[in-house]
Specification:
The chain is α+β, with helices and mostly antiparallel strands. It is about 35% helix and about 25% strand.
């Protein structure tokens, strides 16, 4: 927020020019405050693009800067209503706190108040320019009518036109402009006002008025006496700033509840040394009226948003980070619990932590063998990262090693400050401020998280406290993610070792295959395929599926594939029978499905045998693709001496066989699992693209079905075309 009251959209930065990059501040102010008044909202805000990934809070109306501070920057990919409105280019309506918790649980953790909200995209000439956010008190109906939605989207279009007329805008400033809601009418004065003031002064309780930014605009003599300060000392100040004993998370949380939910709230606080005061807050669209009453003993405080009829709770919370920061920390903690891989942790910190603290760049490094190995970064050029990667822990180029050794975070607000102890640090990256956060778990160093700024930055006490707490959460997430990545790499290596490295080239036969792991577990399973060259014109094509998604399934798959290779060349039914006997000797509880196809390219003949496996699809030129009519034997491992029938199939030129495992046709849908319908969809894809390159065709078969459907099983797919 500029000190001279000017709009943040002045001709600064890359868009400076005559008449360009200069938004009409009065028009924007009037549009936002007018929208708040016309829609009956209690507050409004404008978020605009701030770079490629983030949305910055440019303008706010009806609430104070302190209330919205944790949300100055949000990632465009974050699961929040504002980001969703911009991403999906639609009006997002959230009618209650319960709806917010259900649809946007991370956002609900950081905003535990009763209210309704709407987020509407700002449709500019060259795309969405940002979002309009409106808040209503808890008394607003849960559902928005069609007319109300129309008013909101129309207001968003009006604001977008103002922005379009201004042309390109400079980056959103670090702090938003705060504008008041226009008063609905003139204030009355004269004798009536004096009589009202005299009436208040005669009451035994204190009366205080605050604006929506938390500043005291009126207090009577009784209130001044109870608070222990003169009216001159308190007017224009925020109570928790001018009265240290009210600088607590409890007081701030009650104030936020009153402003956001417009619910009456109350609390009890102790005025040192031993005077207990009962505060009751009554908010509306114009401000907050507070009653202060001496009380002999503290009682129970109602939850935020409850009626002030119940007795209050004694205040006993020590001073610490602001409530908004605490809720922000909870929000980020919830997000970190959803990360799986190291890349997920890096992306989340870049998308949500950097915007929340106004940082521009990030480096995550892990302590490995006495060195700092960079595991992820954002906002740095690769050359800088190459210089920093692998530095010894006792390096004097950056404080990272010392921070890890001591376990104490280090904050540097400008380049001179860090250059005093580490002269080379500013020259390496060109940044202007840094936060070095040690990532520790039970005293064990995991790594270091470095947040950096393009300009000088003052780290406030609550910012340092929240960043220090956040470092512990990042450490847990990073350590967990590194274990996951190690297990994933092991599983991937094992899987690749067990599957064929290449497929043989056979004249007259095109072959392509693909394996996709399931979307859960260790990404390792028992699906397999193979193409075995028997002679110059004969091959055996095999596909199968071992139960499970673990190392045991993969190990058994390797044994089954080896057994089939050893028996290949025998009649197909005999190959499967021998493999079944091997399973019996192994005494395993796992079952295996398998399809074996003996292909004589010279005579254009295929002989098929199946053990509990889905039949392949056959597509002959000029005909409709369809499943081969097989008489399958039971799964391998069910019976030893069960005969395995065979099926003969003529292969005319251009004939295509599609062998697959059940993961391709057993994806869950809203209607449940329907393999027959999924098989028919595969046949439709084959009919439309059967003549395409086999690798392209595999992509269409695997991803041509609804890509939003979760993949719950691994998939093997083998295509052969004469």
């Amino acid at each position: 927020m500029t000190g001279d009251g000017e709009s943040p959209y002045r001709g600064e930065g890359p868009h400076r020019g005559r008449g360009r990059g200069r938004a009409d501040a009065p028009a924007l102010d009037a549009a936002l405050s007018g929208t708040v008044l016309r829609t009956g909202a209690s507050a409004g805000a404008l978020y605009l693009w701030d770079g490629d990934r983030n949305l910055g809070l440019a303008l706010v109306c009806g609430v104070s800067e302190e209330v919205v501070r944790p949300w100055f920057r949000i990632s465009a990919t974050a699961p929040t209503p504002v980001a969703a409105a911009v991403r999906e280019d639609r009006l997002v309506w959230v009618g209650s706190q319960e709806d917010l918790a259900r649809e946007y649980p991370r956002a609900a953790v950081g905003l535990p108040y009763r209210f309704a909200l709407a987020a509407a995209p700002l449709p500019g000439r060259k795309g969405v320019r940002g979002a309009l956010l409106l808040l209503w008190p808890a008394s607003h109906p849960r559902n928005a009518g069609r007319r109300e939605q129309h008013h909101i989207t129309a207001a968003a279009r009006r604001i977008a036109r103002i922005l379009d007329a201004a042309g390109p805008l400079p980056p959103v400033p670090e702090r938003p402009r705060v504008i008041p809601v226009e008063p609905s009418g003139p204030l009355r004065g004269g004798r009536a006002a004096q009589a009202a003031a005299d009436w208040v002064e005669r009451l035994p309780e204190g009366a205080v008025a605050l604006d929506l930014e938390g500043r005291i605009t009126f207090l009577d003599g009784t209130a001044a006496a109870l608070l222990g300060r003169s009216a001159a000392q308190l007017l224009g100040t925020r109570p928790w700033q001018s009265l240290p004993w009210l600088d607590t998370p409890l007081v701030e949380d009650r104030y936020r509840t009153a402003v956001i939910s417009r619910d009456p709230v109350e609390f009890t606080a102790r005025h040192p040394p031993d005077q207990w005061l009962h505060f009751q807050l009554y908010p509306d669209a114009g401000g907050i009226s507070a009653r202060i009453t001496p009380t002999g003993r503290p009682a129970t405080t109602p939850q935020p948003g409850s009626s002030p009829a119940a007795p209050p709770h004694p205040h006993r919370t020590p001073a610490g980070p602001q409530t908004g920061r605490i809720y922000q920390l909870l929000h980020l903690a919830a997000a970190l619990t959803e990360t799986v891989a190291v890349r997920d942790v890096v992306d989340l910190v870049a998308d949500q932590v950097l915007p929340a603290f106004g940082a521009d760049a990030l480096v995550l490094s892990a302590a490995e063998a006495g060195r700092l190995k960079i595991t992820g970064y954002h906002g740095y050029d690769p050359a800088t990262i190459e210089r920093l990667d692998g530095l010894p822990l006792d390096t004097e180029l950056t404080p990272a090693g010392q921070v890890l050794a001591d376990g104490v975070p280090a904050f540097f607000g400008d380049a001179r400050e860090i250059a005093h102890a580490y002269p080379g640090a500013p020259r390496i990256s060109g940044k202007q401020a840094w936060a070095f956060l040690p990532l520790m778990i039970s005293g064990r160093p995991v790594g270091c998280c470095i947040l950096s700024y393009e300009r000088t930055h003052t780290f406030t006490a609550d910012e340092r406290a929240v960043l220090t707490s956040l470092a512990g959460l990042i450490a847990q997430a990073l350590d967990r993610a590194r274990l996951h990545d190690a297990a994933h790499d092991l599983a991937h290596g094992l899987q690749q070792a067990l599957l064929p490295h290449s497929l043989p080239a056979v004249p007259g036969l095109e072959v392509a295959a693909r394996y996709l792991p399931s979307g859960h577990g260790m990404d390792i399973g028992g699906d397999f395929y193979d193409v075995i060259r028997l002679d110059t014109a004969t091959v055996a094509a095999v596909i199968g599926d071992v139960q499970g998604h673990n190392v045991a399934a993969a190990a058994l798959m390797g044994q089954v594939r080896t057994a089939i290779r050893a028996a290949a060349g025998a009649p197909p039914g005999e190959v499967l029978a021998r493999t079944g006997r091997l399973l019996a000797d192994l005494d395993t509880d796992l079952l295996v499905s398998c399809l074996y196809v003996h292909i004589d390219v010279a005579h254009r003949l295929a002989i098929l045998a199946a053990a509990g496996h889905p039949p392949p699809l056959v597509h002959r030129p000029g005909t409709r693709p369809h499943p081969v009519d097989l008489d399958p034997a039971p799964l391998l491992g069910v019976g030893i001496d069960t005969p395995c029938p065979v099926t003969h199939l003529d292969l005319t030129p251009g004939t295509l066989l599609a062998l697959y495992t059940d993961g391709l046709v057993e994806k869950p849908t809203a209607a449940g699992i329907d393999p027959e319908r999924a098989t028919a969809e595969l046949a439709t894809v084959l009919a439309a693209h059967g003549g395409a390159d086999l690798d392209d065709l595999i992509e269409r078969l695997v991803h041509g079905q609804d890509p939003a459907l979760p993949q719950t099983d691994d998939i093997a797919l083998l295509l052969l075309r004469i």
